[in-house]
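One example given next:
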Amino acid sequence: MTGNGQIPFLDLITPHLELEEELVWVFRGILETAGFAGGPFVEGFEREFAEFCGTQYCVGVASGTDALRFALIAAGVNAGDTVITVPNTFIATAEAISQAGARPDFVEVDDRTYNMDARRLQEYLEMRCVRDFRTGKLLNAKTRSPISAIVPVHLYGQPAEMDLIGELAERYKLVVIEDACQAHGAEYFSNKENRWRRVGSIAHAAAFSFYPGKNLGACGEAGAVTTNDAALATKVRMLRDHGQAKKYCHEIEGYNGRLDAIQAGILQTKLKFLPDWNRQRRENAHRYNELFGAQDDLITAPYEPSRAKAVYHLYVIRVRYRDQLQRHLAQAGIATQVHYPMPLHLQRPYASLGYKEGDFPVTERIAAEILSLPMYPHLEAGQQKRIAHTIFELLSTKASIAGSQISQPYPSVGIARS
C-alpha cells in the first residue's frame, strides 16, 4: 500500500527496488561490453527460458505481438488463410493474425474459464467449414478461406483446454500456437500424456509477452517464441532480423523485431524469482477466494479447473453493478481495471467479419460483468481484506435494495482500516 493509503492495481516499484543492485549490474555489464543487440545476455535468457518452459528452443523478440506474428508466419500460415481465436482477448492476438496476412475468426469462450470453449471450436470446424476435395484443406464455408491455425489464449494466466484443442487440430491438420502472453509458468495436466505440461510447451509453438506488468516483465517491451521445432525456431530468428540467415544474407523478407540485450539481461535476472512470485500470486488468489466465498451469490470468483495451475496474471471477478462498484472502489483509493470491456467482434477493426451484438453472448455477458482487482506478489493480506470490505459495502447495499437476503454486510474478517 502506498503511503497515502491508496491500493494500486499493480506494484511495479517494490520488486525493482528489491532487485535494484542486480538490475544495475546488468546495465553496467552491457555498457562495458557494448553488446546492445544480441550476444550473451540474449542467448543466456533464451536458454534459461526454454528450460523453464520445457522446450528445446526459445527465440527472443521485441514484443509479444511480434512473437505471435512471427510464430504464425514461421508455422506456415499464409496470406488469405483463416486463423481461429477468441473474441475475449486483448486486440494484439487478432492484430498478430492480421499482420501475418491471415483473417482472424472467432469462437465462443467457456462461461467459467473465459478461455476458448473447445466444444464450440469443434462445432465451428464441423458445422461452419467444408473440405476442399481438390486440396484436402479445410475451408470456411462462407468465405472459402483455408483454415490453417488455432490460437488459444491462456487468459489471465489460466491454461486453455489444450487436450481437446490439440485433438481437433490433429484431426483437421491445423497448427496450434499458444498465446501465452499472460501465463508465464502456468501448468496444464494433459490426460492424453498423463503428466503436467508447462504453458509454452504444449503446442507447435507459443508466444510470450514480457511487457512490464506481466508476471515476468521487462523494463520495456520484450517477447519470445518457444517451440520444440528446430525449423520454426530458425525461421523466427530470421524473421526478427530482417530475414537474415547470416549478416547481409537475406533468405526472406523479415522485420526489425530483435530482443535487445538490456531487456534480456533484466529478464534473465528476474526469471529465477518467477516461481516464487507466481506462488505468492496463487496465495493471494486463494485469500481472495476465501474472502469472497461467503458471499458467492454476489460475486463470481475465478474458476480454476483441477487440471490447471493458474498463475493469476489478473484476478478477475464477475459482479452485477460492475461500473458502480469500480467507481466505489476508486473513491476508496482502490485501483481496478476491466480486461476487456469491448469484445473484439464488436470492435471497429473487425467490422468486416460481419459479426453483430448477440453473436457471442457468453463473451458479451462476461465483458459487462468482469472487474480486475489488484493482484501482484507483494499485495498484503490487510489490503485484500480492505478491498473485500469495500466491495461488500456497495454490493450488500444494492442487494438489500433489490430485496435480497444477505447474512452479513461484509465478510467476518479483520478489516484493514488504514
In short: Residues 108 and 360 are 6 Å apart (CA to CA). Residues 274-401 form a domain with the Aspartate Aminotransferase, domain 1 fold (CATH 3.90.1150.10). The chain has two domains: 14-271, 274-401.
